[in-house]
Amino acid sequence: MLTKRLFLSLTAAAATALAPLAALAEDRLTVVATTGMIADAVREVGGDLIDVTALMGPGVDPHAYRQTRTDIVATAQADLVLWNGLYLEAQMEDFLLELADTGAPVVAVAETIPENLLIGSEDYDGRFDPHVWMNPNLWSRVVLSVRDALIDVDPAATDTYTANAEAHLNELTQLASYAQNVLSSVGAESRVLLSAHDAFNYFGNAYGFEVVGIQGISTESEAGLQRISELVNLLVDRDIRAVFVESSVSDRNIRALIEGAAAEGHEVIIGGELFSDAMGEFGTYEGTYLGMIDHNVTTISRALGGEAPVRGMSEQLAIN
Questions:
Q1: What is the 3-state secondary structure (H, E, C) of the chain?
Q2: pTM for this entry
Q3: Half-sphere exposure of residue 258, counting CA atoms within 13 Å on the CB side?
Q4: How many angstroms separate the CA atoms of 183 and 300, rounded?
């Protein structure tokens, strides 16, 4: 953990080093977001008025990510820092709280969601499941938090941020409707989503799926041999034929499950790769929040016997 003296020293040095760069940004707000999902919301709401940087890119696990010196520099110079909270960025939490203590505008956007809408964490007493983006309707509340945070630091552009947020919320409503339609086509007995860790509980609650994660809510938890054995039995007993890997989590445990089931004479396939804690490559459709969720619901539906167009909601998904 950074000492307060070292923290202040680093942020002061960062401010001096990046002062010339700040001038090049003209009048645009500089926003730093921890995850790609939050950065995408900032782009949608802020439009041309902001420059946004995501600290964590595709394939990065936010549960284990630790801030780098470059991150410290970026956050020190930002007009606004946005993070998920709810202990998603577990290794960065102390750093971000210390940054907020300096008076910098730092907002944990998911922590503005009412607690009665959150799922409790089995891993950490008194905390909640942080994977709120898995339900587009719940993510809409985060978009509103992003809008409000931008307005707080740039009230002159309130009308623009409000209009942009409203347009994006309409897109999220369409996404939620598409997800409901294609996922409801999966037979009730097949609605079991087994993946590397418990990132899909909000998804399961929203669309009536039983969600099983090999690891807990945090990828920092370990899956022992007993857990693998229990899940092999589940696959066989429930006749589950497809499991899913995640883009930001090792597939080692999923492979062990498939091999264990095969040893019992039960064939299981990988139904596809899902985006859990990170989006796809920047510049692609899957590198947006809409594309991330479109990919997930389309992949899950098709793998579990439902009906969904190959290229998703708006015919933009990549075909592998």
A1: CCCHHHHHHHHHHHHHHHHHHHHHCCCCEEEEECCHHHHHHHHHHHHHHEEEEECCCCCCCCCCCCCCHHHHHHHHHCCEEEECCCCCCCCCHHHHHHHHHCCCCEEEHHHHCCHHHCCECCCCCCCECCCHHHCHHHHHHHHHHHHHHHHHHCHHHHHHHHHHHHHHHHHHHHHHHHHHHHHCCCCHHHCEEEEEECCCHHHHHHHCCEEEEEECCCCCCCCCHHHHHHHHHHHHHCCCCEEEEECCCCCHHHHHHHHHHHHCCCCCEEEEEECCCCCCCCCCHHHCHHHHHHHHHHHHHHHCCCCCCCCCCCCCCCCC
A2: 0.88
A3: 16
A4: 8
What are the tokens at 93?
């939490």
CA 100/CA 129 separation, integer angstroms: 23
Q: Of the candidates 202, 270, 208, which has an alpha carbon nearest to the alpha carbon of residue 235?
A: 270
How do residues 125-143 score in pLDDT, each as one tens digit? 889 999 999 999 999 999 9
CA distance 41 to 39: 5
Q: What is the CA radius of gyration of the chain?
A: 20
Please tell me the distance from the alpha carbon of residue 110 to that of residue 130, in angstroms, as a whole number.
8
Alpha-carbon dihedral 65, 71, 77, 78, rounded to 10 degrees: -30
Residue partners of 259: CB distance under 8 A and separation at least 6? none
The string of pLDDT tens digits covering residues 153-203 is: 999 999 999 999 999 999 999 999 999 999 999 999 999 999 987 899 999
Q: How far apart are CA 146 and CA 47, in angstroms?
A: 12
- Asked whether 138 and 110 are in contact (CB, 8 A), the reply is no
Check if the beta carbon of residue 193 is closer than 8 Å to that of residue 167.
no
- Which tokens is 310 given? 């190959």
CB atoms near residue 256 (< 10 Å): 17
Distance CA(97)–CA(81), nearest Å, equals: 11
pLDDT band at 32 (very low <50, low <70, confident <90, very high): very high
